[in-house]
Specification:
single chain; 95 residues; Jelly Rolls; five-stranded antiparallel sheet
């Protein structure tokens, strides 16, 4: 996943999945419930199910990361080329 400078993933809560994010480029901030934690290349953030979270590229460079959901959140091979595409798929999945 890539997050452009000044962008964010979007605040969300996953009720049934834990999420592990590994940051490989850039810097910014993780927001878990009310806690704000800086992230950069090499950071790993664990988001337990039920935790409100967002990730913001507010450190002057974009973020590149990968995320692992357990259990899986998306079907094998799923690719979302843009946030809008991912958001649309999320709406479809939950309605």
């Amino acid at each position: 996943m890539s997050v452009a400078v000044g962008g964010d993933i979007g605040e969300e809560v996953h009720e049934d999945v834990d999420q592990v994010l590994v940051f490989v480029e850039g810097n910014g901030e993780a927001i878990l419930d009310a806690a704000h934690v800086p992230v950069e290349a090499g950071s790993v953030v664990v988001v337990p199910a039920g935790t409100r979270h967002n990730f913001v590229a507010n450190g002057g460079t974009g973020l590149k990361l990968y995320t692992v959901y357990t259990p899986p959140e998306h079907a094998p091979g799923t690719v979302h080329k843009t946030k809008a595409e991912a958001d649309a798929a999320e709406l479809e999945h939950h309605h």
